[in-house]
Amino acid sequence: MNRVKMIILTTILLGIIVVNVSAQNSVPQLINYQGFLTNQNGEALTNNYNLIFRLYPDTSTLNSDWNEEQTVKVVNGMYNVLLGSSIPLSAEILDNNSFLGITVKGEVEMKPRLHLVSVPYSYHSDKVDNEDAADFVHVIGDTMTGTLTLDGGDINTNGKVKELGNDLIPRGVIVMWSGILDSIPAGWAICNGDSGTPDLTNRFIYGVGTGEDPGEIGGTPNHFHSTDIGSFNSGTYTGTTGYISISTTGSRTVTHSHSVDPPATDSNTKEHLPPFYKLAFIMKL
Question: Using CA atoms, how far apart are residues 55 and 34, in angstroms rounded to an integer?
Fold first, then answer.
């Protein structure tokens, strides 16, 4: 029994939100109460507890204006109940000062009672675990203000995470991918000219110049060098390489020639790239 009593004494109010506003703008008849249960060591609890909720006109009156018992499921310390779900809350009770008391069935009521302050169609607590409201994230409609810190775990969403109103990774961002092509994440596509991507197959990236927009292509996959070997000119070449003995009278004319046959020309392709490692370019869709 003492352990249960200690649990309730360490209850922390997380929030009280009024729901079920009627079309006639009457005072709502349900209060959404959220709490957090720990043991005497501050450890969050998981179990079912029978809790009795009472509303009083002040902090000391013994007789309550309203009471309701609920079996509350607590998971990892968190629990949530709708006050008024079995015993209706009257408008008269909510129009006046109300103090909420919580009791584990069979135990004494936890102290202090919580003062519910009435504002138009809502009730609130200005303290959560002795912290001011300014220390927490504020949500109004679909807008949240304040700093949200996630200590471990993941954020999963079926939509998009945005920064300053823009996608966190804008459409058109291109990154290098080292995995297999069949494992490219959803929302990304290989840059092969399909799905609105540029065709970067077997291409290098060349940064644009001032005033240019991306998209220009250029360069060639191979090229050739040619050399023109000039022909031999006719002429007279003199020198002694041997002799001819002629025994006769009169004049004689002796001629001879030399021919030069250069080797045939050749054509080859030479690799001129430095060592490389191939990666795939993928684009955010």
Answer: 16
Is the Cα torsion angle 135, 136, 140, 145 positive or negative in sign?
positive
Q: What are 175's two structure tokens?
A: 């990154």
| Separation of alpha carbons 133 and 16, rounded Å | 13
Residue pair 191/281 in contact by the 8 Å Cβ criterion: yes
Q: Beta-carbon neighbour count of residue 150 at 10 Å?
A: 7
pTM: 0.38
C-alpha separations of 213 from 166, 196, 206, 208 in Å: 21, 16, 12, 7
Give the pLDDT confidence of 76-133 residue by residue, as tens digits: 878 889 898 889 888 777 777 889 998 878 888 888 888 876 544 444 444 455 566 6
Residue 170, pLDDT score:
87
Length of the chain: 285
Domains of the chain by range and CATH? 2-143 (2.60.40), 161-208+276-285 (no CATH)
**Cβ-contact 77, 38 below 8 angstroms:** yes
Tens-place pLDDT, residues 4-19: 544 444 444 444 444 4
Asked whether 102 and 64 are in contact (CB, 8 A), the reply is no
Q: What is the pLDDT of residues 11-42, one digit of tens each?
A: 444 444 444 433 344 444 788 888 777 776 77
Dihedral angle sign, alpha carbons of residues 160, 163, 165, 170: negative
